[in-house]
Amino acid sequence: MLSHVFTVLAAVLGVIAQGTGELGDAMEVMNNPPGVTYVAMFEGSEMSPVMGEVVAMADESGTGINFELMLMGLPENGGPYSYHLHAAPVPEDGNCTGTMAHLDPYMRGQNPPCDMEMPQTCEVGDLSGKHGKVDGPDVSKSFTDKYAALEPSNDAFFGDLSIVIHYANSTRLACANFMVEEMPMQGSGGPRK
Q1: Which keywords does the record carry (predicted)?
Q2: Does 7 score more than 70 pLDDT?
Q3: pTM value?
Q4: Domain count for the chain
Q5: Range of the domain at 149
């Protein structure tokens, strides 16, 4: 009887922990530099018709990142589309497979799928898993992600990485690198990079 109780308890704990990464749940990022903005531009090409931008900005509180997706030209068929922060920038040849896997500093992996009700247990880079997939042809979507970072010393930093849009079957449709946007210097009103 006691061994049966331990078996059931182990099974329950396994189900509870299955969404958590090997290094635990993602931590909320509270030290993002206020006002820092990165933009990923989708310019459209023969390989992918997607155009638009993804803007990522740390707000005044420094907690999390505000994302704004403004995309055009998503194919009418093939969605809903997922979008993820990836662990490498787009290579010079533009091949989206070169962006590697999703940004996943807590070593969670993609299975089981992300549960929107428990975003701390998802891959940091699984933005659509936490905030919902999109459908085309045009998209305008805003959300705040508490687990992404624009503070370079944080393992969840994506400012020098990429974002990838995937078809419903996970094939990569489009990708773009994040680039820092010019910001005014504190106190001077002049530009800085």
Answers
A1: Antioxidant, Secreted, Signal
A2: no
A3: 0.84
A4: 1
A5: 2-184
